[in-house]
Amino acid sequence: MEFDLSYFTWKINIGKLYRFPVWCTYIEHSEGDILIDTGYNLQNALKYYAWEKPIQTEEQHLENQLKIIGKRPEDIKYVILSHLHFDHCGNNYLFKNATFYVQKEELRHAYVPDPFEAIGYSRETFDVPGIHYETITGDKEDFFDGISLVTAPGHAAGLQVPILQSKELGKIFLDSDVINTRLNLEKMIVGGIHWDSVKSYESMVKIVEMVKKTRGTIFFAHDMEFFNEIKKGKNYYV
Predict the structure, then answer these.
(1) Would you say residue 88 has pLDDT above 90?
(2) Please, are residues 26 and 34 in contact by the beta-carbon 8 Å criterion?
(3) Measured CA angle at 163 (ends 119, 206), to 5 deg
(4) pLDDT at position 3
């Protein structure tokens, strides 16, 4: 997808177009296959967010990406949603067998958003018949073995950051729109799309301090250069 870079770096880089990735994370887990976020749905994005110029090949469709690693949507047992903006829950409809976990505050804002935050929510992506939501309140250490959830409101009211324990990289922090790009981190600039700018900054500081304390690694949500560097598909982290 593509839009003005200032949407990521608030009031900076106005007029500079930036094409950014949207992705999600599959985890092979002893308790069942887990997916973190479900990306965006191309048809939904073209219908409501055409100004972001969404591009997605047939191979990039989520069900086809799962096929590459030998999985089907019906194999996914759990879906953890960082938040309910359209580009993080766009393919929820694929996972009819899964239990979905989301912060209670986020579900409330998705259904009844304040006018200034409504643009991020597309009801048809999350209000899907047959989907079973389990709501979470607050931080959850070892929500699943090796997976913790930390609240980081600001970009969205109920945003949560999944933290994965990896043998290869230690703790992996799935940014989930708290920081977005390396530039945000380097200059400590909040994103231009936010529910609360002050809370956005406080959440950035919270996550950065946790990363430093644990010597963890941030996986930036929408940094194209970073996305091109990381392992994907069958080339995975352990």
Answers:
(1) yes
(2) yes
(3) 70
(4) 84
